[in-house]
Design brief:
The chain is α/β, with parallel strands linked by helices. It contains 13 helices and eleven strands.
Length: 331
């Protein structure tokens, strides 16, 4: 009798397991970048990998080009559970991620990777997850080093920014950096930026070369300056309630695919940034490469941003010391 009971219990558990794994899941993911951008291409790879490795049990549907709204709106949809995921440099709900966007913090891909894979990054990501009700399944680079552009004059020194109205995406560290150099700032959604530049709502902007090329900002901007002043983390947010419904087997598959996606994304950025820069130059825009002395002037002008971020609670002084130590340790 005991053996029969154990057999029945075992069969029930097997049936329950088969039922759970028979359930189909849909993962709708939004982002703001156009066709050909590293985020777009790497997310298409992620979708294909997850669909194949779960044998269709998890179907990933990716909507790029801002089809689902602005980055802030998409993150709000993820938090609400309207969609399951979004990728983008949206930090309104996780402002401490801004500590990795301090101006002139890094110079190389190895330094960026060391920061984004550090224990400090894991801690800050966990804080963001708890605050937003999301799970952050990857943290890669949002597009590469960011450059200045405007439609009025060459920017060769900080004083050249004085009087210019520069677009930001609302991130404090961008605002702080421009304002430290004498510019004024205006927040404009990424999808609206081309028309804002064309109509003079703002004079200039900052973005990586691959973004500038993909969004054709060079059509409405004459002067570019290669300052490499900042990189942005690119968090992949997933709704926590949806994530917890997934069998662990599928979670593991998605995490592995997300890790591969992040590495592929960064590889694409590195492979395409210089080509994008040259394409912008070939299109007729001026691309100015500052001298080492000119670059140092930009760096010096932006240094007050570090202590301003500490003062505003984006990071603590020990965390700033840790960040600088991580970067300095990269050979």
């Amino acid at each position: 009798m005991k053996k029969r009971v154990l057999w029945i219990v075992g069969m029930c558990m097997l049936v329950m397991s088969m039922t759970v794994h028979a359930k189909k899941f849909t993962m709708t993911v939004g982002h703001a970048q156009p066709v050909g951008n590293p985020r777009y291409v790497s997310l298409e790879k992620f979708a294909k990998d997850v669909n194949e490795r779960t044998k269709g049990a998890v179907t990933v549907e990716v909507f790029g080009e801002g089809q689902l709204g602005t980055e802030k709106e998409m993150l709000e949809q993820v938090v609400a559970g309207t969609i399951q995921g979004m990728r983008g440099g949206q930090f309104d709900f996780s402002p401490r991620l801004l500590m990795f966007t301090l101006p002139f913090l890094t110079n190389t891909r190895a330094e960026v990777t060391a920061l984004l894979s550090s224990d400090l990054a894991k801690k800050v990501s966990a804080e963001a997850e708890e605050k937003t009700g999301t799970v952050m399944i990857n943290l890669c680079d949002a597009g590469g080093y960011r450059q200045f552009s405007n439609g009025k004059r060459r920017i060769a020194k900080p004083a050249d920014l004085v009087g210019l109205k520069m677009r930001t995406n609302g991130m404090k560290t961008i605002d702080m950096t421009f304002q430290a150099m004498g510019a004024t700032t205006v927040a404009i959604p990424y999808a609206d930026l081309y028309m804002a530049l064309k109509t003079g709502v703002c004079d200039g902007q900052e973005n990586p070369w691959v973004n500038v090329q993909g969004m054709k900002f060079y059509e409405v901007q004459k002067y570019f300056t290669a300052v490499n002043y900042q990189f942005h983390p690119d968090p992949f947010y997933v709704n926590a309630a949806w994530w917890k419904e997934l069998p662990k087997e599928y979670q593991d598959i998605i995490l592995a695919a997300a890790d591969e996606m992040g590495k592929y994304n960064d590889q694409l950025i590195d492979e395409n940034s210089n080509a994008a820069k040259e394409a912008i130059r070939a299109a007729g825009s001026e691309v100015y490469d500052p001298t080492p002395e000119e670059l140092k002037a930009f760096q010096d002008a932006s240094m007050p941003v570090y202590q301003q971020c500490v003062k505003e609670g984006i990071l603590t002084q020990p965390e700033l010391d840790e960040i600088l130590k991580i970067v300095a340790s990269v050979k």
